[in-house]
Amino acid sequence: MINVEINGKGHDVEEGGTILEVINEIGISVPTLCHMKELTPTGACRLCVVEVEGISGLVPSCSYPVSDGMKIKTHSGRVIQARKTIVELLLSNHPDDCLYCERSHSCDLNDLAREYGITEKSYPGKERGYPLDVSSLGLIRDPDKCILCGKCVRVCEEVQSVSALEFIGRGSNTIVGCTFNEGLNVSSCISCGQCILVCPTGALREQSHIPQVVDALSNPKKHVVIQHAPSISVTIAEEFGMKAGTDVAGKMTTALRMMGFKRVFDSSFSADLTIIEEGSELVQRIKTGGKLPMFTSCSPGWVKFVEQTYPEYVENLSTCKSPQQMLGAIIKSYYAEKNNINPEDIYSVAIMPCTAKKFEAGRPEMVEKDGTPDIDAVLTTRELAQLIKSYSIKLPELDPEEADLPFGTRSTAGKLFGVTGGVMEAAFRSAHYLVTGKETENLKLEPVRGLKEVKKANVKIGDLELGIAVVSGLGNARQLLEEIKAGRDDIHFIEVMTCPGGCINGGGQPIRADKETIRARMNALYNIDSTGHLRKSHENGAVKELYEEFLGEPLGELSHELLHTHYKKRDVLL
Question: According to the model, what pLDDT value does residue 370 have?
Answer without folding.
Answer: 80
